[in-house]
Hints:
The structure holds 6 protein chains of 6 kinds.
Chain B: H1 18-62, E1 68-75, E2 78-82, E3 92-97, E4 103-113, E5 118-126, E6 131-139, H2 149-152, H3 154-158, E7 163-164, E8 170-172, E9 181-183, H4 189-206
Parallel strand pairs in B: 8-9
Antiparallel strand pairs in B: 1-2, 1-3, 3-4, 4-5, 5-6, 6-7
Chain C: H1 7-18, H2 31-36, H3 41-64, H4 74-96, H5 98-104, H6 115-123, H7 130-160, E1 162-163, E2 166-167, H8 182-209, H9 219-223
Antiparallel strand pairs in C: 1-2
Helix pairs in contact in C: 1-7, 3-4, 3-7, 4-5, 4-6
Chain D: H1 3-14, H2 25-30, H3 35-62, H4 71-93, H5 95-100, H6 105-109, H7 112-123, H8 128-157, H9 168-182
One iron/sulfur cluster binds next to helix 6 of chain F.
Amino acid sequence: MSTGALRSFAHGVHPDEHKEQTAHLPLERMPFVQRYVLPLSQHTGAPCRPVVAAGDAVHRGQVVGAPVGFVSTTLHSPVTGRVAAIASRRHPNGSMAECLEIEADPWSTQQLEPAAPIDFRALSLDEFIEQVQRAGLVGLGGAAFPSHVKYKLPEGRRCERLLINGCECEPYLTCDHRTMVERPEAVVRGAEMVATMLGARETVLGVELNKPDGMDALNCFIPDGAPMRVMSLRVKYPQGAEKMLIKAIFGVEVPAGKLPIDVGIVVNNVGSMAALADWFVSGRPLIERPVTVAGPGVERPSNLIVPVGTPVRDVLRHCGIRHETRQVIMGGPMMGMPLASLDVPVLKGTSGILAFTEDVIDHRTEYACLKCGRCLEACSNFLNPARLARLARAGRWDELELSYVMDCMECGACTYACPSGVPVVHLIRAAKTAIRERKAGQG
Amino acid sequence: MNGDVELTVSVGQREPSPFRMIATLGIAAMLSGLVLATVFQVTKPLIDANKARELRLGVFRVVPGSAGLRKLVLRDGGLVAVAEDEVVTAPAVHAAYDESGTFLGWAISGDGPGFQDTIEVLYGYDPQTRRVTGMHILASRETPGLGDKIYKDEAFVANFGALAIEPSIVVVKDGRDEGNEVDAITGATISSQAVVRIINEANARWLPVLPAEPPPFTGESD
Amino acid sequence: MADALQPTEAYDEFVKGIWKENPVFVQVLGMCPMLAVTNTAVNALAMGAATAFVLLGSSLLVSLFRKLIPRQVRISTYIIIIATFVTVADFTLEATVPRVHRELGAFISLIVVNCLILGRQEAFASRHPTRIALADAAGMALGFALALFCLGATREVLGSGSLFGISLFGERFEPWVIMVLPPGGFLMLGFILLFFNWWQQRTLRQRRAGPAMAGIGDAGEAAS
Amino acid sequence: MNDLFWIFISAMVINNFTLYYFLGLCPFFGVSGQLKTAFRLGLATIFVMLITSLCASFLNAFVLPYAPYLKLIAFIVVIASTVQFVEMLIRKLSPALFRALGIFLPLITTNCAILFLALTQTSRDYTLLQGICFALGAGGGFTLALVLLAGLRQEAGLARVPEIVKGTALNMIIAGLLSLAFMGFAGLFSST
Amino acid sequence: MTRQEPHLLLQAAPFLRRGLTTPRLMVEVLLLLAPVILAAVWFFGLSAILVLTAATAGAVVTEWALTPAHPRGASLADGSAVLTGLILGLCLPPGIALWMAFLGGVVAIGLGKLVFGGLGENLFNPALVGRAFLQAAFPTAITTWSQQGSITEFATVRPSNWALPLMQAPPVDGVSTATPLGLMKFEGVPTPLADLVLGNTAGSLGETCGLLIVVCGAIMAVRRIFDWRIPVAILLAVVVFSGLVWALDREGSPSPQFMLGSGGLLFGAVYMATDPVTSPVTPRGAWIFGIGVGLLVVLIRVWGGLPEGVMYAILLMNAATPLIDRISQPRGFGRGRPAA
Amino acid sequence: MTTTLLAIAIMTGLGVFFGIGLAIAHRFLRVEEDPRLEMLEEMLPGSNCGACGEPGCRGFAEGLIEGRLNPSGCTVAAPADIESIAAFLGVDPGRQEKRVARLHCAGGMSSARQIAEYEGYGTCRAAHLVGGGGKGCVWGCLGLADCMVVCDFDAIRMNDERLPVVDIDKCTACEDCVKACPRDLFDIMPVAHQLVVQCKALLEGDEALAVCQVACDGCGKCAQDAAPGLIRMESTLPVVDYSAGGPASPDATRRCPTGAIQWVDKNQFAKPAFVPLTGVHLD
Ligand SMILES: Cc1cc2nc3c(=O)[nH]c(=O)nc-3n(C[C@H](O)[C@H](O)[C@H](O)COP(=O)(O)O)c2cc1C
Ligand SMILES: Cc1cc2nc3c(=O)[nH]c(=O)nc-3n(C[C@H](O)[C@H](O)[C@H](O)COP(=O)(O)O)c2cc1C
Ligand SMILES: Cc1cc2nc3c(=O)[nH]c(=O)nc-3n(C[C@H](O)[C@H](O)[C@H](O)COP(=O)(O)O)c2cc1C
Ligand SMILES: Cc1cc2nc3c(=O)[nH]c(=O)nc-3n(C[C@H](O)[C@H](O)[C@H](O)CO)c2cc1C
Ligand code: SF4
Ligand code: SF4
Ligand code: SF4
Ligand code: SF4
Ligand code: FES
């Protein structure tokens, strides 16, 4: 059971949650559309390599991309149909990337070939990791980090504890919430599998206090006596960031530049756990995911299960898009990316699609930084965002590094809190790319 | 700009002999010494005259009616008369005389912290009446318009015309009525206090050593 | 080399110090005396004159003997030369205008270490024939004196309401005491430099915006 | 107040060499771009000022009474040479110390604050001890002003300063405001 | 590709923002300054209104004239120029010549703010730059304090207000008086605490009524308009340090409660030291800054040449702010060691 | 007379004493170091004024050797000295062939399509991170002048099309712009290499033309028209390889349907209108 005390981490912000629009809406299936675009790079790490050619027929769940190296994962076709092209297509991040374009077969029933459940207990850890890679699983919490890489514990490290991240601290988003409410058994089963395979002695599900039904549902499915508990947390952003969550729950600070596993913890998103359970129980690879579609520009806000690769345009059309819409965001409003074009696909890491109209768009007038310190009080990473922003504007790369700019997780809390409308995190992000390029250039 | 440059540097130039270096320096220094000594000798009389005139003017202000001076320095616990241009490091006072050679009083100088930097004060003291007979600021960096009134403000300087020194001089802010009071300059109380304190301190230092019998006037300092 | 010099070259060297390479406004050298003694115009001029004397004298000597002085001891030698001139100036002022000498105080002696003077010896006099060196020294000295005077005059006018001790605005003028205090020195020089920058940018912009745009950075244009 | 203490405080804040007497402005503006350098320069200045004060006391006692007109030249030559010896010595003995501090020595020896220190100490007839306090105060005050200016300049370096103010004009204005702020110390300990 | 749809708007994340903006911040401070202004008018009559107007006009005109932004004077909209003008006005004596107040406003904005690049970039508190400039330029005028008028004299303007530009005020005898601090320092006369708290003393326009300032300050602290640590640290440091001095020398030095109530300490601590731009950003820095101000105030008041040291204390600590910021950098998550 | 003699004696004494002292010290307290350091120190004025921001002339010399500083940073040295120092340091532009920065994009405001509107911090790098800055071509120039700002030599100006124009007379091939451009559009090329492909879009045919009128549509005509081997198609773009064939001539550009490959004579693109140095970044 959850411990009573309201735990959290230091600093952070509390934006309006805006979750009421969709929190009560059950997950629905997004109908199939004509055309799917599958970028070969949907995850952190090396893009996968296409194993089909233009013109090939593919069926739903079929492997169409194979991993290249270990930090890379498998890509499956979300529909039965035909590979129309392998070419450059727009990627949500604003670039153009190599994609598989798949035309759905309008006559297909789009049934997934049933597969026999896999008994994970019979697998060794390496076999388990191979299965996870084969399922194309990536973290659904946002970074889309290939899950199997996480389970490959570095030499000399042990996983003591498994932490399941059910915070969903981004405003508007409710897909994790719905997953917990509607599929608690899958979440718990997935967590059990990972905990067992990694040998974790304890599993904690961290959930923010604004999702009591989610906590209840999870609690119902936790087997009695299992070393697994749900812990409730004060509502605060960015609680979902893994290091903050670890701090909130275990009181441990993961040293800068280190990974959670360095303190014996593995963090996974609730959705990732459900997806993992799906593969082992029913053989469904990661070909679809829950996505919250919300915002004032959407006529019928929904929580949808969307096949990966569905163009955003179709998702919005399905939910109805108001023509006052001026801005479309993929992901949450704090860390998500704005879309330049609606002709980009939903990715494995897409947790939400938000459509904003002019009246909620914040055209910030920028004033010079007042050095008021509000960003410092927002930054849960204990950085000095004001200074970083000023240094970034001046292009002082060396000083930036000395001020730990590379520690910034780009959560945007500072920018949210800034009264002067300084685009703090944007400046930081730009500086980080410049610094990385400089390093790459030197190295 | 390009044609007329004589580049004396050529990279990796050989070192000149140390002898040449020393000789150059030596000759330059010698010539310099020659020039300096000459100029010094030419200007010294003028400078000395200037200094003497200034001193006389100052003393004339603080000891009204004075026409001649003698310099005395503190040596072995007592005051000894010395020639005006003798270079001394010991503290000195001047005895002031009128035209007929009658002793009028002492001209004493003192310094101490003012509002900004050190203030140097020259004041006259008449041992007969045991009063200060006048005050003159030799150097100060007090604020123009405020602190500089300690010498620009006639009324303030007039305070020191016949100022009793016992038990000690005090600064007041609302008009003087005792003989030992100095009316502070409005807006420059600190500087006023500083002047008074400097005089008090100098009194404490000098009065005990001043000889009862001043040295006779020799008339040499004119 | 020296024989080929045109008379205009000496003139150019002279003129550049006054404006284009003004030691104060452009090169920002010798600021200590610059600020310390410019609370009145008279002090500024006296300081300017003393500096000019030292600069001319030492430039003359240095350029005369430039071939005889070994490089290793050149700085020491220059300093001895400069210090000699400064002491001469110091004594002369003390003997002739004791009041001014007292106001300038130690700053006359500090001319020795004025970076402007040593800098000129090193950068110019030690490698140019006497005539050119003198022209340069005269230009620099004039430029320096000019800058001192600008500063001294503004500070005196605002700070005391007078110029050369002559009251300008009548009895009831409220002097801006700050101008004769140290902060006023810094601020006033800051303002003059600011004005200089503004002026330069304005002319630059005018030149750029005009039809002569093709000539940006043309050496020919700037040299006129 | 205690005489020595006042000499120290006065030279440090009330009559700060840089902000009140405009001394040592070349390094003050030249080397205040970076905080670390500024601090080191300040330390080196304190050191040189100490040496200067000792040299001046020595000269005043043994040489200048005989040839007062050599004051200036003697100060310069003796101070510069002594510092140069020390510099060479440090460079030989402790390269690390040289890198940190010694490298600044030549920059300071030929500057006006040092000479002014010697001249003032002479004209005020300071004793050896008073001279040392004076030197420590003056050096400390220079360091204080320098470090403050360096901090302010680094901050201003990140500000959107108008093009026409940038550079020396801005430094002058900052120094002016700093000097204005230091006026608050005027009269300190003089009335007690 | 065929349909022409309106362009989407690309902005950088985050897309949400807390409601508080800079102009609102300034407006809130202005609102909480209003009671102090009213008190000034109550105590000093029409003169107060004139002086405040002149100072504010100087500030606003300068901001308007010297900012090159495209709609000229656009930067006035953030309200900080008005705030600077008013705060400057509130720390001037009621009898100051209006042209001086105006000049103060000009200097505050021109020299104190715009040369550094405008709002947010200045290194020293602009209002204090203006006042320090006036104090150094016209030391007599700015230390000439006039008595509070009674209600009946509300509309009587002090004649010195009307001095012609660049000219001295006509000398008036008998009107000028001394502030509690001046009385204490130069004559050893303390002022009763009640007068200090209620504002029944001579002094600058805004500084006399301690009670009101404390109340407004408390409201601002609660509303998180400024960093509460700064005023708290200042007042604590003053009390502790002056208490120590007082304990050692009860005769010669003022009591801590006198220190707190007199002069511009409260006004400075609440409205001026808290200027976010010129005070440290970090919480630890705020403590250091506040303690520094407090110590300097006591130092100058007790041992300095000037009766009042708040202005210089704040300016000096403004100068030290970059250094304080540097030594009080936050430590960095998972590092336990502050950044360089 | 005695005064004069005394003066001469003291001064000579001092001069000789310190002359000897320094000479001895010079000999015995010598420290081995980069020989260039001493030479540079000698070439510098030695007035140790600190105006350069370094701890004296020696510090400046070290900075020069480390490549941190530029000889012109010394305000005291005469221009001729600065030249000779520069020459000594081996910053010798005369020997090499002249190289300049060339831009691989010609998609200015009137030819490249914008698909979304960017609002925010106005640098290319920042815009690039936000949905690609809204430019239809994700390879193309964003026109927010990061390169202009970074160029220390004032060699870059933005033209009316918001394309950077490199003034080849001023460009020193320092590569700063190459590093600054988030889209990697600059290359340092010899001026003699006059064939410049002004496009980096990996698109073909209509897809290319849909985002930009002057894009390379990958037709390959330039490769056919050029001397054999000089131009080869890599993916959809022509690559000019001077080592692989030649001679280069303007013929290769004649049939290019979009003008994506150009024979560049001096500067690329039209002369820029005057854009004040500030203002671009202040939005
Ligand atoms: C190069 C790299 C290696 C990683 N290795 C591991 C790992 O060995 N074990 C692990 O648990 N997580 C590993 N991670 C994943 C991170 O802990 C983290 O979950 C991931 O970066 C996404 O985090 P985010 O969503 O908070 O940004 C690695 C991440 C990166 C970038
Ligand atoms: C600022 C920030 C906020 C995050 N918020 C969440 C969140 O609300 N829920 C979540 O599951 N992951 C969140 N993440 C990602 C987690 O850090 C972590 O990568 C994830 O929980 C790992 O699980 P996964 O690999 O299964 O996605 C956030 C990351 C960052 C940097
Ligand atoms: C810029 C400035 C300069 C001042 N200069 C002096 C000064 O030189 N001498 C002095 O005694 N007071 C000076 N004061 C005033 C003193 O601080 C103090 O207010 C005054 O001595 C009190 O005198 P009162 O009691 O007559 O008003 C100055 C004040 C300021 C603001
Ligand atoms: C709490 C607070 C206090 C302020 N105090 C001052 C002040 O004392 N003087 C001033 O000129 N501006 C003040 N301002 C306004 C603004 O911050 C100031 O003008 C900036 O320094 C201008 O860049 C204040 C603003 C706030 C929010
Ligand atoms: S974006 Fe970076 S600097 Fe800003 S609050 Fe988050 S971690 Fe801190
Ligand atoms: S919150 Fe904004 S204004 Fe305040 S310090 Fe941070 S960046 Fe500056
Ligand atoms: S930096 Fe790159 S994208 Fe930006 S203007 Fe220059 S060439 Fe274009
Ligand atoms: S940054 Fe360098 S390479 Fe680029 S244009 Fe300027 S000088 Fe040339
Ligand atoms: S002139 Fe004073 S340090 Fe250079």
